[in-house]
Amino acid sequence: MIDINNIPWCEKYRAKKIEDIKGQELAIDKVKMFLRTFPQKKAVILHGPPGTGKTSLAYAIAYENDSEILELNASDLRNKDKISQIIGPATQQRSLFKKSKIILVDEVDGISTIKDRGGIGELLFILERSSFPVIITANDIWQKKFNLLRKKAEIISLKEVEYKVIKDILNQVCEKENHAVSGEIITSIAIKSRGDIRAALNDLQLLSKMDSPELLIEAGERNKEQSIFTSLQYVFKNAQIDTKMLKIFDETNMPIDEIFLWIEENIPLEYKGTELAKAFNALSMADVFRGRIRRQRHWRFMVYEYFLLGPAIASVKDYNRTGWTSYRKPSRILKIWLQNQRSAKKKSICIKYAKHTHISTKTAMKDFLLLKIILQENNLRKMLKLNEEEIAYLDKPIIS
């Protein structure tokens, strides 16, 4: 039985109707025109950054036109027998329950010219034979391998969604979920999402499960997170080793220790069985080199550390993976951050108290339990000029 409380909000609130698609009015009009003029062009390619609503638009269009959707992913195009036995006939037979049918080829970027030889050819074959319109989604359709595909289809670009539009969506979700979130936090999430509705909803859902508004900083680092999400996706989804893979974490805007935690947290989401064991073995070897670097200052070992974190973990797969995975923030990072926040407030209180009583900050920190009792007096708080956050910290029970 599915627990609705654990459904990702990006799926729970996925747009299901045309009016639910926000910020893509031009693309919607072009898709509607494509369907009206079919079969002058048999396919349309929706391309744009992640989280802009490409797949949702395809389903919303199908809903509006009372059409059945036959969804294919890049992995479906690897098996020629499957295409000829199942997909081929489905592109010819009319729907039993709907007025029409739409063929959706999702995430075509996942087709590899090396691992999936003939995959593009099979897709072109579907376009030629299909009796129904084909909608293709891609993040980057300008790769060389798609030269022939671009000639066969109309290309429609989806832009990054403006932060004001995302802000409205987040407010609507908060209302439906009965969560009170300040306008400042909503605005910050919307801006930092950089046009990615899915990422914004993920951040909002994460914050909804936390009991402190101070965790705004966790949602306010979208630039950093976008970098780590992109890097993890490249390592976890690709099997081949290339130049980009070799330096993937060199270009990630995050300390190497945090990268370790992100990889450790998310490996089980992408790997199973023997692959999972091999991936964790590569991570453990990287940790060995990290320890040697710290103890012995052998910085030349960093090349091995980065290789084991990227290419070594990627290479345990036999073929490229497709689909979207919701990567999780490492729980240990959050615990460390919370502890640092508590320590920072405690220290700032002790510094102010030590200055007025002519003792050392270290002594004040040592006697903080007594200090907490003393500072229950409002006049003492005013004398020390404690701010609202410091007062709130004093009023909370001490968390060991």
CATH second-level architecture of the largest domain: 3-Layer(aba) Sandwich
| CATH class descriptor of the largest domain | Alpha Beta
In the predicted model, the low-confidence regions spanning at least 5 consecutive residues are 213-226
Characterize the main sheet.
5 strands, parallel
- Number of strand segments: 5
Mean pLDDT: 80
Distance between the termini: 38 Å
What's the CATH topology name of the largest domain? Rossmann fold
Structural class: alpha/beta
- Structure annotation, total helices: 20
Walk across the major sheet and give the strand order. 2-3-4-1-5
Query: What percentage of the residues does DSSP assign to strands (E)?
Result: 5-15%
Estimate percent helicity: 55-70%
List the helices and strands and how they pair.
Blueprint: H1 9-12, H2 25-37, E1 43-47, H3 54-64, E2 67-73, H4 80-90, E3 100-106, H5 119-129, E4 134-138, H6 147-152, E5 154-157, H7 163-177, H8 183-192, H9 197-208, H10 216-219, H11 222-237, H12 243-246, H13 256-270, H14 273-296, H15 302-314, H16 331-357, H17 361-366, H18 368-374, H19 378-384, H20 388-395
Parallel strand pairs: 1-4, 1-5, 2-3, 3-4
Helix pairs in contact: 4-5, 7-8, 8-9, 11-13, 11-15, 13-14, 14-15, 16-20
Distinctive features:
flat, 5 strands, 20 helices, 400 residues, Helicase, Ruva Protein, domain 3, alpha/beta, five-stranded parallel beta sheet, Rossmann fold
Characterization of this structure:
This protein is an alpha/beta fold. It folds into four domains: 24-157, Rossmann fold, CATH 3.40.50; 163-220, Helicase, Ruva Protein, domain 3; 224-314; 333-395, no CATH class. Helices cover 56% and strands 7% of the residues. It contains 20 helices and five strands. It has a five-stranded parallel sheet with strand order 2-3-4-1-5.
